[in-house]
Specification:
The structure is a homodimer of 160-residue chains. By secondary structure, chain A is mainly alpha-helical. In chain A, strands 1-3-2 form a three-stranded antiparallel beta sheet. In chain A, α2 crosses α5 and α3 crosses α4. The interface between A and B is large, with 69 and 69 residues. Chain A binds a DNA duplex (23 and 23 nucleotides) through α4.
DNA sequence: TATTGTTATACTCTATAACTATA
DNA sequence: TATAGTTATAGAGTATAACAATA
């Protein structure tokens, strides 16, 4: 395996043979949030390794449609902070895959309401527990109390 | 301005005329970190609006080279959790822009050490205060104490 | 054999703007 | 005149693999 990039499963980003001083950069929320998000997604992909390839974005969309049946595309896009153009492509692909259904409501025929199909529900059932149950950062670093506090602070930051 | 996407400067992601129930998804760290990072970057770009176009990634690289003179490309890439191939392109562009200098050390002639040039230092001086001084989430949502605790938890999560 | 940086390729994500159909 | 969704295009970012030089 001469060039497998090794998927650097090291616990710390910059700790190895060579260390690095992050200085004041390492105290800015923007920088910390970026690294933390990368680390969280890496843990996610490691956890789903070998299983069916479901991406965080698509999984989230399915879960949100399930819990908000008939939600409109634009509302979903705004909630996930992605552009409507991107949401269109995403939802279209999921429609072609037979996972979601798109219907035009009578009261506003410009918009499109989203519902899960049978297969969509079935796929959700397959990954929901694993997806929601996978606790990021559970590997010793943060205590359960700290994880809860981190969630609380992020939700307040986001005004969720 | 018929289609300016309005840069949705709303305080909350999903709060508007239409609301959305995030359900259990809104309690997962991965989801919260992703949204928080997007929000942080949006605040960053809003704050730098109109000023010279410096991107967070490049600014971070300059700041880290300044504080770790002679740091090798690979070490920098690992610390920032980006691939070496991407770091190559980034650093090459910055070299062409005259901001950094790349030298081959005697003890390991495979590697490349990075230093700031005069112009690189000058550009750093121009944005450093604004970049480091810009406090993400300062707009009322989190108290200074909460921001400090958030930073602490993220650093512990990242083992920084 | 392994590692550092490089190049090339492809795919995802994102940003922007113009377009349509509705409102 | 504005809005919801669409389409097209371009640009970042990222992943992957193969390669040369060096260790």
């Amino acid at each position: 395996m001469p060039e497998a990039e090794a998927r650097a499963r090291s616990p710390a980003p910059g700790r190895g043979e060579d260390s690095i001083d992050f200085g004041p950069v390492g105290q800015t929320l923007g920088f910390l949030l970026r690294l933390a998000q990368l680390e969280a997604f890496r843990e996610f992909f490691d956890a789903f390794e070998g299983r069916e390839a479901i991406r965080p974005g698509e999984a989230t969309v399915l879960l949100l449609i399930e819990i908000n049946p008939g939600i409109r595309q634009g509302v979903l896009a705004k909630a996930l902070m992605i552009k409507r153009a991107h949401m269109t492509k995403m939802v279209r692909a999921m429609e072609e895959a037979g996972l979601v259904e798109r219907t035009v409501p009578e009261d506003d025929r410009r918009s499109i309401e989203l519902h899960l199909t049978g297969p969509g529900r079935a796929q959700l059932d397959r990954f929901r527990d694993h997806f929601l149950g996978h606790e990021v950062g559970a590997e010793s670093r943060l205590t359960p109390r700290e994880r809860a506090e981190l969630r609380r602070l992020l939700r307040k930051f986001l005004a969720l």
